[in-house]
């Protein structure tokens, strides 16, 4: 990892991650990578529409046509996207949060369509796994400027609710969301410009609001684990298990 990547993550960021479960990096994604994220999003939405057409539906898992999209584990289908997924910036974040070893565990676009995007409930990313595992790190990249009006992400500091461990989640039958917190705490909104990254633990509660603007709101999420996360029966990786860092050095080649 180069020196520039290391300088992005301050000691204060590292400490906040330990104490509160998150930190925010403003405008750290290089412009060429931000352009790749935007171009890749357009391609993957079109591929999802093609799949919806094939299946004769407007709803796949928790994606709803022209409302919101969660497009997962498709980074290899978007030319150039690996340059961001395995970038020095991601390496710096991994080293600052989960340590010198990292595997890509999951990636997805989270998109709310203009004046149509619906909200996403309070949850821990680990709540979608539903079994004990080592916490991993989520990197939520703002592909567009993020505001309250367009449904930005909200994170819940550990100190606000006193929860640092995995809790049971229940599925909302209307949206397919898993929900793990029903209290009144509001959390911290990520009001950030495009190119920023919200970094949080898989045990950190977060949510997002509806997009009430006339523009699409796009975010790209990558998740990295300190070791491969296996299925409970040990039969293989639960999702992805792409080697990224070993002893702090990149080992993935695009």
Secondary structure: elements and pairs:
Blueprint: H1 3-8, H2 11-20, E1 22-25, H3 31-55, E2 59-60, E3 63-64, E4 68-72, H4 81-85, H5 88-97, E5 102-112, E6 120-123, E7 137-142, E8 153-155, H6 158-161, E9 170-171, E10 178-179, E11 188-189, E12 197-201, E13 206-208, E14 217-225, E15 242-246, E16 249-250
Antiparallel strand pairs: 1-12, 2-3, 4-5, 5-14, 5-15, 6-13, 7-12, 7-14, 8-11, 8-13, 9-10, 15-16
Describe this structure in words.
This protein has 254 residues and is of the alpha+beta class. It has a single domain, classed as q2cbj1_9rhob like domain (Jelly Rolls, Sandwich), CATH 2.60.120. Helices cover 24% and strands 26% of the residues. It has helices spanning 3-8, 11-20, 31-55, 81-85, 88-97, 158-161; strands at residues 22-25, 59-60, 63-64, 68-72, 102-112, 120-123, 137-142, 153-155, 170-171, 178-179, 188-189, 197-201, 206-208, 217-225, 242-246, 249-250. The strands form 4 sheets. Strands 1, 4, 5, 7, 12, 14, 15 and 16 form an 8-stranded antiparallel β-sheet that branches. A hairpin with a 2-residue loop joins strand 2 (59-60) and strand 3 (63-64). The longest helix has 25 residues, at 31-55. It starts with a helix and ends with a strand.
Short description:
The chain has 254 residues and is α+β, with helices and mostly antiparallel strands.
CATH architecture: Sandwich
Estimate the helix proportion, in percent: 10-25%
Q: What kind of oligomer do you see?
A: single chain
**What do we call the CATH homologous superfamily?**
q2cbj1_9rhob like domain
| Beta-strand residue fraction | 25-35%
H/E element order: HHEHEEEHHEEEEHEEEEEEEE
The major β-sheet equals: 8 strands, antiparallel
The CATH topology assignment is Jelly Rolls
Low-confidence stretches: 1-6
